């Protein structure tokens, strides 16, 4: 959903100021969504589930960008920031925020709050697993997404405090400091693949495909767990596209012709997902974005 600049800044400030030992409770909520009825009856006495995925609707994104008069081109900057909402104890409080910047100034803010993608066959954004109660942006395969989200879903509650902290070297300190992950910066220079896809489909200039949604998937990469100087928490960003007209080849063939920069091999292939109504969407997954800290933009970190 689109949120105001003040709402976004308040949520980001609350994330920054949250004591690390209190962080874990913000990733749990009653298993509901804005599209499911009836509403939760209070006082709530059921289980709280750990969030696994949150989504932003493509048409809502593009509509908000157009309403704000934001410019989407190769000078645009994108940022993913972690935020917290001030909600009831049984409600999910974590809210990743997708920010669009023109000339270094934020012009649009959107909060990931919906645990349902709206597409048949996609899993729920809540994970029923153990402990459920109370640099680059490279493509990754679907198996990587399944692995890191599974580890996230089955991790102990106390593990959340560990995976969001690391001793990192920033430009503001003489030596590495224990820091909390604040988010990610996405730029043309450092994150070319993801940046190009965002520009193309948020500008809505490609007639063959349109943006269905952006998915924000929570994960843990055990390969980073013992490093100490890097965050073992990882975000996998999903770009889901639906075709508006595909002629002269398969949906993947047409997409490949539009995106020479995207890798098409056995490990990072674009996934074609068939829906119940025989419609098809394309899934492109990205990870290894520049974390903040240490790669923070002006005014951050």
Structure, described:
The chain has 301 residues and is an alpha+beta fold. Helix content is 20%, strand content 28%.
Write a compact overview of the structure shown.
With 301 residues, this protein is an alpha+beta fold. The protein is 20% helix and 28% strand.
Helix content: 10-25%
In what order do the strands lie side by side in the largest sheet? 1-7-6-5-12-17
Query: End-to-end span in angstroms?
Result: 25 Å
Strand residues, percent: 25-35%
Number of helices: 6
| Mean pLDDT across residues | 81
Number of strands: 17
* Main sheet summary: 6 strands, antiparallel
Structural class label:
alpha+beta
Order of helices and strands: EHEEEHEEEEEHHEEEHEEHEEE
Shape: globular
Q: Would you identify the regions where 5 or more consecutive residues have pLDDT less than 50?
A: 129-136
Radius of gyration: 19 Å
Topology:
Layout: E1 2-3, H1 5-17, E2 28-29, E3 49-51, E4 53-57, H2 58-68, E5 77-81, E6 97-102, E7 105-111, E8 126-127, E9 138-139, H3 142-154, H4 159-163, E10 165-168, E11 177-180, E12 183-186, H5 192-202, E13 209-220, E14 233-243, H6 251-258, E15 271-274, E16 280-287, E17 290-292
Antiparallel strand pairs: 1-7, 2-3, 3-8, 4-13, 5-6, 5-12, 6-7, 9-16, 10-11, 12-17, 13-14, 14-16, 15-16
């Amino acid at each position: 959903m689109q949120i105001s600049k003040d709402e976004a800044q308040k949520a980001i400030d609350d994330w920054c100021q949250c004591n690390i030992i209190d962080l874990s409770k913000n990733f749990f909520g009653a298993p509901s969504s804005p599209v499911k009825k009836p509403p939760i009856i209070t006082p709530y006495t059921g289980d709280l589930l750990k969030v696994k995925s949150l989504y932003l609707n493509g048409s809502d994104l593009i509509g908000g960008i157009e309403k704000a008069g934001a410019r989407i081109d190769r000078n645009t900057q994108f940022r993913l920031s972690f935020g917290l909402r001030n909600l009831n104890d049984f409600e999910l409080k974590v809210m990743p925020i997708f920010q669009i910047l023109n000339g270094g100034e934020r012009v649009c803010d959107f909060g990931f709050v919906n645990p349902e993608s709206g597409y048949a066959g996609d899993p729920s954004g809540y994970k029923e697993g153990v402990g459920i109660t109370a640099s680059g942006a490279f493509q990754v395969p679907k198996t990587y997404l399944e692995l890191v989200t599974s580890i996230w879903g089955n991790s102990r509650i106390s593990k959340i405090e560990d995976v969001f902290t690391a001793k990192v070297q920033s430009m503001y300190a003489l030596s590495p400091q224990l820091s909390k992950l604040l988010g990610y910066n996405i730029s043309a220079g450092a994150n070319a693949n993801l940046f190009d896809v965002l520009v193309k489909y948020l500008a809505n200039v490609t007639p063959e495909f349109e943006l269905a949604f952006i998915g924000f998937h929570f994960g843990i990469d055990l390969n980073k767990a013992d490093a100490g100087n890097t965050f073992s928490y990882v975000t996998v960003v999903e770009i889901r596209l639906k075709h508006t007209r595909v002629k002269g080849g398969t949906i993947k063939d047409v997409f490949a012709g539009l995106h020479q920069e995207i890798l098409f091999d056995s490990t990072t292939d674009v996934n074609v997902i068939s829906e119940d109504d025989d419609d098809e969407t394309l899934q492109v997954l990205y990870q290894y974005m520049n974390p903040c800290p240490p790669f923070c933009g002006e005014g951050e970190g």
